[in-house]
Amino acid sequence: MQGDEPGDPQAQTGRRRIPPPLDRTRLEDLALAYVARFATSAGKLERYLTRKLRERGWSGEGQPPVAAIIVRHVELGYIDDAGFARARAGSLLRRGYGPRRIGQVLGEAGIAEPIRHDVRPDGPARRQAALALARKRRFGPFGGKVAADPALRQKQIAAMLRAGHMLAEVRGVIDAPSTAVAEGWAAAADDDD
Fold it and tell me: Which of 21, 109, 162, 165 could form a disulfide with 57 if both were Cys (CB 3.0 to 4.6 A apart)?
């Protein structure tokens, strides 16, 4: 009968190939491919491997060695939570996110609190991030409507608070009468803020 042969393309139409259950070698290969492709943390790799095990099942002996694989990748330097946290925090700061939002993102990535504390932005970095967001979203003096509409001002403040900025920094940039004043405010920051 035509279409029933294993190599026949018609036999494969409409059928989905089910991947085999994972064993230790396949699990290690998945982990290596993941860390090679993505900058990641130990927590993110653990969630990825756990999800793959849930999807495909385990055919190896005993329990899946997820923790051992992660420890091995950390020892080899393939995973560096502190380096990941510094890079991710820097990226989020440049995009205009504040310290609260950065802490949330790093927490979701499984970064431990001491590392999150070490990469927390200082006063000048927080002000520059608030300025970057205001510039990008055309808030405050960057929007041309300086304090003309109180409802608009409240919406802008709320958006910046949702982005993780502190109220004092939000007001500093939103209430600036001009872009030059806002940029001067950001440049004049000291670490005591």
Answer: 21
